[in-house]
């Protein structure tokens, strides 16, 4: 049988495990051009919180009793597509289930000789590419600029800071535990970091750590940390809006200080994006990222929930609350 | 004698006339490379409110007892620069005074045969250029897009809407009186407009007037009107931050709903700018604007305070409160 996680109810505030159901369905059969895959690692990501809201997000939302959306690292167990053989490792958008069929066209193959296959959902997957294109294309980062990253120990933020260091920039990050702060400074090479749960005055903290101001702010979090950035932006500063995780689980929307006048005085730019806009450049970026990984210029950690698909909701909720360092995954099955 | 307006005190909230002093000084003498000019029209502009704050703006602030900053339309009455003759009309940044000396290099000459010289401070001056570059360069407006302009009857907003119509776009504006709404729709050709003081639900109003959403929002105002734009932005929408006049005279900063998550779902951009960034393209733009004016594709109104330099503070305060339609000027002297 194929075990799946479906949406039981739309959460108000943080999702609860009871907002999801574990159900069983037959293992589907691939048609011509399709492959049948078995999930090895399931990816849980912040964007999924938006997909279970009733209000429209940037993609179709999950309906009640539908299988949760998401991508997995999976192994081909039956192929009706000429490019794929049984045993191949792929990144497939089949959602939260143990098996799925998917079109072979456009399916991305994971090369298991470069790095552990789990990285295909992390540093060499969507989060890594999000960091790469957000920082370099939207942020237009230049050598020797200053960068501030919120959510800096997460799957995206941890890569943003490291790419900024590769580009010769000064990088400061914020994260929610002392362990994360230690990780990003002492293991990933950020110039400085702070635990936002232990600091009350973010504005002064940023002034202290980035006394010449911020050229590029890569925002995964939003809220009060982001408020503190605007007065600290440099002329022609760029604010890359990647995520606003502090806002996703609020029971009612938050207000904050108005800041748009800073955009005039700083001649600054704020821009949101989706990594899918750069799909035609993903392969090229992955070559560069893989080389940095091989050279030791990029490091990563993963937080892997081992308990099978029934633990996907708990892993998702834990990630939304900051329980992860690096990419949060759920191990579903062993490779054949 | 040379009568000048100096800053007497930094206003809290709206400036009062008592925040300014009328003083007298000798008429200065030009040195080599300079010209002495006599002010004909004094320009009062929203940006000047920022210049009299204690906090730093994007340019040096006016100190107490200093002459107020600003540009004037003036006539050369003595020239020690080879490019200027007595009688020439120029746009000079001499501040709020009846006479001033200024370097001839970089001084812009006004051609009185194209349009009344007052337009050199309005539609063929800084406000017109701000509309042009803000809409076309920052807003990257494309044919058949939809545009919303706040402060649409002002010196900048009225030009924004007309350029958008020249470019084949649907244009909606907001303004603060029924007379202004009538002016921008029936005289300037906006597709629709509303009086923001008579409407309480801006979100629904925008949905009604721009049911397919907003491609480019040109913001002169900020505050609640701007809040209502974000849910109505189209995918890849652009928000041009030109001014935030609703925020300049608040005694304490306002809060508003957080909206940055819209930037992700809409893959949208917010950008501030200063017209001076495009200084090397001003001359070329003015050729195009002059031609549109000649063809009747651009129209304008001016609100001229006739009472001499002693009335500049009152005209400035009136403009900040929305008393003007089109460009607010103060007539200082007659042409020789």
Give a quick rundown of the structure.
Two copies of one chain form a homodimer. Chain A is an alpha/beta fold. Chain A has helices at 47-51, 126-138, 157-166, 178-187, 202-209, 224-229, 245-248, 260-265, 282-294, 312-320; strands at 2-7, 20-25, 34-43, 72-79, 89-92, 99-103, 108-109, 146-149, 170-175, 192-195, 214-219, 233-241, 255-257, 269-272, 302-305, 327-331.
Could you give the topology of this structure?
Two copies of one chain form a homodimer.
Chain A: E1 2-7, E2 20-25, E3 34-43, H1 47-51, E4 72-79, E5 89-92, E6 99-103, E7 108-109, H2 126-138, E8 146-149, H3 157-166, E9 170-175, H4 178-187, E10 192-195, H5 202-209, E11 214-219, H6 224-229, E12 233-241, H7 245-248, E13 255-257, H8 260-265, E14 269-272, H9 282-294, E15 302-305, H10 312-320, E16 327-331
Helix pairs in contact in A: 2-3
- What is the CATH topology descriptor of the largest domain in chain A? Rossmann fold
Cα(first) to Cα(last) distance of chain A is: 17 Å
Main β-sheet description of chain A: 7 strands, mixed
- Average pLDDT across residues of chain A? 96
User: In CATH, what is the homologous superfamily of the largest domain in chain A?
Assistant: NAD(P)-binding Rossmann-like Domain
Question: What pattern of helices and strands is seen along the backbone of chain A?
Answer: EEEHEEEEHEHEHEHEHEHEHEHEHE
Low-confidence stretches of chain A: none
Number of helix segments of chain A?
10
Structural category of chain A: alpha/beta
CATH class of the largest domain in chain A: Alpha Beta
CATH architecture of the largest domain in chain A: 3-Layer(aba) Sandwich
Number of strands of chain A: 16
Tell me the quaternary state.
Answer: homodimer
């Amino acid at each position: 049988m194929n075990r799946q996680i479906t949406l039981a109810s739309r959460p108000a505030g943080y999702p609860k495990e009871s907002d999801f159901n574990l159900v069983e369905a037959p293992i589907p059969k691939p048609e011509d051009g399709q492959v049948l895959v078995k999930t090895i690692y399931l990816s849980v990501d912040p964007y999924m919180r938006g997909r279970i809201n009733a209000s429209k997000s940037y993609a179709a939302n999950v309906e009640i009793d539908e299988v949760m959306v998401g991508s997995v690292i999976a192994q081909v167990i039956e192929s009706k597509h000429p490019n794929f053989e049984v045993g191949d490792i792929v990144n497939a958008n089949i959602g939260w289930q143990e098996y799925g069929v998917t079109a072979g066209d456009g399916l991305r193959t994971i090369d298991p000789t470069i790095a552990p296959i789990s990285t295909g959902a992390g540093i060499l997957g969507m989060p890594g590419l999000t960091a790469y294109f957000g920082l370099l294309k939207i942020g237009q980062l230049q050598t020797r600029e200053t960068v501030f990253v919120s959510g800096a120990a997460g799957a995206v933020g941890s890569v943003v800071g490291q790419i900024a260091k590769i580009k010769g920039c000064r990088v400061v990050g914020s994260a929610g535990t002392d362990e994360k702060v230690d990780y990003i400074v002492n293991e990933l090479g950020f110039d400085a970091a702070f635990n936002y749960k232990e600091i009350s005055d973010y504005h002064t903290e940023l002034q202290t750590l980035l006394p010449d101001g911020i050229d590029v702010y890569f925002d995964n979090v939003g809220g009060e940390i982001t408020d503190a950035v605007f007065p600290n932006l440099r002329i022609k500063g760029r604010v890359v809006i990647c995520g606003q995780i502090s806002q996703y689980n609020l029971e009612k929307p938050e207000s904050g200080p108005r800041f748009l006048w800073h955009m005039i005085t700083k001649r600054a730019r704020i821009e949101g994006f989706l990594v899918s806009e750069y799909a035609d450049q993903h392969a090229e970026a992955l070559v560069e990222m893989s080389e940095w990984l091989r050279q030791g210029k990029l490091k990563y950690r993963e937080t892997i929930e081992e308990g099978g698909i029934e633990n996907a909701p708990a892993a998702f909720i834990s990630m939304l609350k900051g329980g992860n360092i690096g990419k949060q995954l759920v191990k579903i099955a062993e490779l054949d």
